[in-house]
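Can you give me the bound-state structure? Components:
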Amino acid sequence: MIGRLLKLLNERETHIFLFVLGCILANWPFLQIFLGKELFKGLMSVFVLWIILVFVLFSMSRGCGATPHADNEQKQKERS
Amino acid sequence: MIDPRLVLLAFFVYMGFLFLIALWVEKKAEEGRSPSRYPMFYTLSLAVYATAWTYYGQVGIAATSGLLFLAVYLGPTVGIFLWWTVLRKLIRLKNKHRVTSIADFISVRYNKSQSIAVIVTLMALFGTMPYIALQLKAITSTFSLISTAVPLDPAGESFVTSMIREHVGPIVTFLMITFTIILGVRRLDPTERHEGMVAALVVECTVKLLAFLAAGVFVTYFLFSGFGDIAQKIMESPHGSIYQDGSLGLERTPYLTWGTHFILSMAAILFLPRQFHVAVVENSNENHIKTAMWALPLYLLLITIFVIPIAFGGLLKGLPVSEADTFVLMLPLMEGKAWLSLMVFIGGVSAAAGMVMIASVTMATMMTNHVFLPLVGRVPQLEFLKRHLLRCRWVAVAIVIGTGYWFMIAIGESYMLVNIGLKAFAMALQFAPPIIGGLFWRRGNKMGATWGLIAGFIMWFYTLLLPSFVKSGWMSPSFLLDGPWGIALLKPEAFLGLSLEDPLSHTVFWSLLLNISFYVLGSLLWTRSREEESLAQEFVDVLQVSAPVSRTQDRQARIELAEKSEDLERVLLQYFHPRDARAIITKCIEKTGLEGRETVSMAELLELQSEVEKSLAGSIGAASAYKAMSDGITLSPQESRELSEVYAETLKGLRITPGELKERVDYYQERETLLLQQAGELKEKVDALEREIAERQKVQKALQESESRYRSLVETMNEGLVIEDKTGKITYINNRVSEMWEWSPGEIIGRTLSDFLEDGQRELVEEKLGRRLFGEVVTCEVTWAGREGSKISTFVSAVPYLSVEGEYEGCFSVITDITPLKALEREKANIISMFAHDMRSSLVGIHGLGLRLLNKFSSMDDEKRNEYLQIINREASKLESLVDDFLEFSRLETGRLKLNFSPTSIEKELQELQEAYCEKTAQANVRMDLVIEEALPVIHADGNRLRRVFTNLLDNAIKFSRPNTTITIEAREVENGIEIKVRDQGVGIHPHEQPFIFDLFHRGKGDDKKDGYGIGLATVKAIVEGHGGKVHVTSQLNQGSEFTIFLPKVARGKDSCPL
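Here's the bound-state model for the whole set.
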């Protein structure tokens, strides 16, 4: 299950979907849901959204496979 | 207030510390252990995004426009979702083309166009200058603030203090130039990576975060009582009016503005020249992106978490809204927290200095590579300057920072900090179309990019910068109000009649619209050169793994390598010291594998030239390097002919035309892409299989361990286990079965249970066990025949196991050996029979004599009558004794023998016993000695029961003593109790019997067995242990036995003694 989720998070289409979703959630009209509340509740809602985004990004970063290109480059540098 | 000298000293110490860090990191990098290999190093360097504008300015926005500031940090967080594709592409292309800046990158994509590089550089310069001005303003204004919060008496000030206070701007500018040159432009680096400077940046980013958090904690938890307290107070204050009705100040920050800031910041975090530099040029490993993807948004979240409390805290403390930008510093100053203020100031310096350093180095590189060098190339008199590239960079740094300072003096005062920052963001947004288009759209070309950039820049300048000039008083206000020449449609803030409430959104709309439109139109209308086409292909497909290109068959190596090396060296000498130029050539020759060669082929020469061009591009940019190589390297007619021949031969070998070659290349590239895709899918499947195998191995191991545990349990358990298959054959037995049946496993396995049944009950048992074949659980007693003809009584529980379809598959039989229980039952039956027999004998005697007395009482003489009565009395006594034994047997059977403790004199009990046994010992012709050397203490015990103990022991002693022997009773006080020994000189007890003589119903196997019931000694043990004492026996055959009893002074037993 986790493997499938990580694989999904490695897909470019998923990145684009999350980007679009993030844009929608962090702008009008959804933003009104967060900010149209009492002062600190609104602020907390935005921060909770932010933390969720960070968590999704963290999961996504786990899913992004190590690229042999970068590894080889690093090894070459270490050798030199 | 803090003494200006102390503030300046702190500034110096901090910058000196950064310099040492930079030196240390550079040294480590030379040793190959650079901290830049850690992903967090890269992530923190990206946090240069949070400049003084973040540090001070966001509090100002929060105080005036509510939560609008959050858009600037949420935008990048959302934009980062695309980094794994976009940023990775940028980094790969940077590595491939040795890109040195954002201008270099765009120019490389669009045919290494110098004109595009110049345009981008000039645009970046326009966008960066105000931003640098903003940072310098932050440093100078906070410097003044921290050192003049409470003005000193002018008369009391020293000359130095006064001078520092008056010339803080030039001093800071001079120091910034000096430190930037020392940290960032100390030498020319062919890769344009500055690990020392980035290390300083990392420290600065850490310090500014810590300082801001410290200020936030101070305001939130020391000045107020937490977030809730501040929220409540601000809502009750006059400032709270804009946050009531759930509006959160949104009427002052409409969603259009929010959206504009969101888009601008999303682009700025990657396309601001300094951000591009740290994110792309300074990247050492593209995998570092993965950490930056989540850690950078987390950093941004942390640095904004206390913005609202600080903003509201300042308002509640009565500070003016117009000075909200400085609340973060003012609040600790107001409260007299000098060290915290100094820390906050250093944090601000970090935020500003980091940006100034990296931005000025980036701009200096772009200016020298893309403006200065092409210019010098056109003016022969200035050719010599190419050799002084490093010094030129120093001058460029000074110009950039100096101009920034001038900008601050000239127009900075009329702006709030935020305005300058957003103008730079809007400029950076203009780079997005050519970069994103260049990465994903093959048809995007040089002409489109050029026109798009120019259009975007013009709109940015016209709609955003010119109004700033007007607002600064440099131009007539009618320019804004009526438009140029009174044409309303050309009004900068209402272009073509479109008037948006927010001027920034207006600029973003028009500049982006024109930029994209011209880019697309230009690209569609103009065709690309073949080289540009190839570059476009390379940029778009850079993430696809390409198969290694096999070398074409080399032609004869006829070109003199030394001669060509000289040509290449001559090109390099225009920019480098001869020593460095030679070193670069040598390195390139080594890299292409041509060392030691005198002549090379055309293909090898081209490879060498490409390598040198890349090295040169690292210092002067790809476009300039390409131009320099094109101008500096010429091929002789023969070499040109050979190059043509190489190409023609390639086509001839393939027997195709150039057009066909292109089609085939496209076909193979497509095929290769498909193959790579399939390989990727296969790899994923293999990975999944490997994971599954690993999982199965794990399960198998767990099963093996479990099986091992159960096997061990089955092998060692006291019950026998037999497993049969569905034909009734035994397939498995444990050790206990083998022991029980006295057959080896080899003799049992393969046979059936019936083969081992005892003949007498075979039919009955087979009938009972047969029910298991119908899936019924069977429990019954079974007697087996042992190897030697013995009978083994067992209790069998047979549990059949069935298939999924419910068919009988076999059976597990658990066999419990009940032979000892059976023996015990038989023993009990014998004892009861003996009881009955003995009682009947006595009763028959009493009955007979009683009848005779009844019938012949009168005719019987006295002597006879007495004799009969004595016999009756003796038999009655015997009967009473039998009944007592029977009762005792009954108590022992139920397991409870009641004890009544009271002070008891053992000495007295033994003496009375001796007297009572005088007659009995005399009859048995044995002597009884009682030995008590010292007076015994009175103990807590049940005297009646103890008498029973001694009686049983003495009866046994008398019974097994030979005539004319002595029975000795010894009693003495020992530690915590009394020890009593009863010793006889009788037949003794066989060693095999000794461990069992205290067991209930155990009777010796000697001739005297018939005289006892196996209760006496069991009673002794039970009573003694009921007192908390112990009893044991030592004996030798034909020599006698000695029973030793220990009784504690205070009985530890209970009022009953379980058996």
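A couple of observations. The longest strand of chain B covers residues 791-802. Residues 658-716 of chain B form the longest helix (59 residues).
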